[in-house]
Amino acid sequence: xxxxxxxxxxxxxxxxxxxxxxxxxxxxxxxxxxxxxxxxxxxxxxxxxxxxxxxxxxxxxxxxxxxxxxxxxxxxxxxxxxxxxxxxxxxxxxxxxxxxxxxxxxxxxxxxxxxxxxxxxxxxxxxxxxxxxxxxxxxxxxxxxxxxxxxxxxxxxxxxxxxxxxxxxxxxxxxxxxxxxxxxxxxxxxxxxx
Length: 194
Known about the structure:
The protein is mainly α and 194 residues long. The protein contains four helices and no strands. It has helices at 8-33, 35-60, 74-155, 167-193. Helix 1 runs antiparallel to helix 3 and helix 2 (35-60) crosses helix 3.
């Protein structure tokens, strides 16, 4: 039994995906405590998400359009923003792994196609070479036959009309000879009896 190649690359991608969750949590915790990240990357996306969620819920429940959506307090916005940031990081890692695997498969298929095209081209080249060899041999045969005819004329040697008889001609001649011989023997017997 042949052992297949261990898919180390796929295992690495899976490991990277699993590590992305704790990694995202570490990044989010640091971002929550950093004032610049908190002000520009955590709170604004959380407030926008809250605004879009309230608008969608109001629209789906047919409660009318709210005039103004109340903003989340800073602590809730930080928690929601951190959660969103963690999900974005995990989704980005998963998407990156997916794109990497897709590109790897495309490259693998392209390599197979290139190999197939090379094989087809080799077959075409071989057929072309065989055709050229056949044409060359036909020309040489014609030249040799013409040379033989010229030599025969000069030496006054008569060449046979057909050099090679086909198997069918030989078989037909053999059958006709046998039937002629049988008919002749039958006629001889009839004449001797009379």
